[in-house]
User: Fold U-box domain-containing protein from Symbiodinium natans.
Amino acid sequence: MDYGEIITALQHVVSCAGSLRLANCVGADRAQSFECQAQEALELLRPGASTGVTIPQATALLCQLALDCIGLTNAVDLQLASQMTECFDQSLVVWGFSVELAQAIAMSLAAVAGLLSLGNHDMSIPSHRYAKRAQIAPYLEPVAADFDMISMQVYGALCRFETEASCSGEEERQLQRSFQLICIWILTILSRFEGSGPLQTGSLWEWANGDPHWALALAKGVLGFSEEAGSDVLPRELPELKNAVLLALCGLGSPDIAFGGELEADVIADDLGVIGCFSMQERLVGLDLHRSRLALAACDASLLQPLLAHVTTSSKQGECTKAVVSFLTALAKPVQSQASAWAEVIAEADTDTGIRNQTDAAGVIDAFVAEASGYDRSLWGLVFSLAPEELDARCLGEVALLAALVPPPALEASGALVAWTQTTQAVRMAAESAGVPPSPAFPSASLAALVALAAAAGLEPPLEPLGTGGTGATWDDPEEASGSRELWAALSALSAKESSQVAQHLARSRAPVRRPETWERWYSRIGVPAAPSVPSAPSAPSATPAPPMLPEPPEPPEPAAVPDPTAPPAAPAAPSRPQPPQPRAASLRERLRDAPAELCCAVDGKLLVDPVRSPAGHVFERTNLVTALQSTGGLCPLTSQPLSLADCPRAADLRLQATQWVRNLGRGRV
Assistant:
C-alpha cells in the first residue's frame, strides 16, 4: 500500500507539533503528547514498517489524529499567548490559532484526504463508490462535526485578512495561507469523497450547512490561494479543484439550491393538482431572499477579486467565465417579489442577516452591484474574450442582463461586437459555400441580446432605420462605430419576419434600462413591419413612406410584475401552504456581528484580530488603521488629529478578550 502522500503530510504535522511556539501556546505536555501521537502514526505507515496497517486501521488512526489536532485549539493558553505577543510584538495567536497550529490542522486534513486515494476502488463505478464511502464515512463524520467548531475562526480570519500585503505583517500572511490550506484540504476531502466527478454545488452547500457566508469563505480560501514556490503540501489535483470549486460556487444562486428538494416536489404537486403548494409569490420571495443572502456574503468575503483572478488563469477560462456571468446575474438581478408577500412569508425572528423585507433585499443587491462595478474592466475583459461558438442564446441573454446591471466599457463592447459578428458571419458564409441552406448569423434571441448589450454600453445605432437605405447609415462617434456597424450589418441581413422576432425579444426584455434614449433609438431603428392587428398609418402620396408602426419600447419592469424564467409555473390557490425554507441556525456572519462593541474595530465594526489602541483610547484593527492613516495623510480616522502607528501600541488585553469570546462562541456558550 502506497502511503506516500499521507507520510509527507504527517511529517509536516510532526514538525509543527515539535515547535517551541506550539508548546508555548498549548503547553509543553499537550504539545509533546500530540507530537508522540503524530510520530507513532508516521512510523506505522512508513514503508517497511514491521506491523502492516490495513486501510480501516489507517483511517481510524488518521481521523483520530485530525480530531485531536483540531481539539488543540481549545488547549491554547490565551493568557500565555497574550504575554508572548506583548514580549515579541508579533501576532502569535489569532482567535486561538497560531501559525503552527493552523498548519498542523491543514496537514492532518491532508493525511485524511490521502486515505481517499488508497485502495482499488474505481470511483466511477457506483458500487465501488458506495463501498468506499461506507468504509470511511463513520470516521470522517466526527472530523466534520469538530471542524464546524473552528469554522468561526477560519471564516472570520479569512474575511479579516483581505487587505493589501503591505498592510499585513508576515505573521498574518502565513496564518492566512494556513487557513487557505485548511479550506483546500477540506474541499479536497469532499471532492474525493464524492469520487464520481467534479465537486457538486449541492455538496458544497450541504458541507457549509446551508450558510452562504461559510460556503463562500471556503471557496474564497481555495480560489485565493497562490501556488508560490515553497514547502506547502498541496493536492495533486489543485488546478482541477479550483475550477470545480468555482463552478460549484457559481451554481449556488439556482432555485435548486434555494429550495432544495422542496421545490421539485412542489412542481410535481402542481402537475398533479395537489392542494398545499407554494404560490408564485412565495417562490419569488424565497428565491429573492436566498440570492440576496448570497450577495451579502459575497460582499462580506470580498469574493469578486479572487473569483475573477482565478478565471483569468484558469485552463477552462471560457466555461468558468460563463459560470461567473450566470452567478453574477443571479445575484444582481432586481428583486422580483412583491413587498406585501414578504410579511406573509418571512418571519422576522427567523432571519439572521438583517434581510427582512423587500427593501432590505434590494439594498443588499444594490451594494453588490456597486461592488461588481468596481471590477468592470477585468469582468468584461473576460466576457469579451469568449469565442463566438461559446455564445449560445442563453449565455448572450445573461451577458445582456449583466450589461444592464454593470455597464461595460463602450470601446471594449464595440470590439467584442466586431469580433463576434465577423467570426459568425464567416462561419455562415463558409456553410453556404458548402451548400448548407442559408441561415441568420445569430438567432433572433441572440441578436436581441446583442442589441441590448450595445445599448447598455452606450453604443449608438445608425441615424437611419432599417429599410430606408442602409448604405447611407452614419454614426455620431466614429471611434465607437465599428461594433454598431457590424451589428447593423447583421440586422440588415434579416428578413422582415426575423426582424419582427428580434423586436419581440427586445419588448419582452426584463433587463433594467440604464440608457433609455440609446435603447429606444436601437429599438426604433429596427424597422419592424406592423403587427396585423395594428394598422399602419396612412402616408401622403408624394412623401417618403412613413416607417412601420412599432410596439412601444418597454419600460423598466416593475419588480412585482416580472416573472422569473427559472421559477416554475404558479401554483393553484390553497388554504394553507408550507413556508419557504428558513436557515436552521444563525449564520457565521450573524454570530460574529453580535460581538460586543468594545471588541470591534472603530473603523469597520468587525471583531478585532490584531487590536491597537490610540492615545485617545480608540481601538482599531491594526491593518485598518494603517490603511486609514495612508489615506488621510497621518490623521486619525475618528478625530482627524495627527496620529502615527507608533503612537498606537497593540492591545493585548483586547486580543485576549476577543479570542476568548470566539472560543466560547464555538462552544455554544455565548
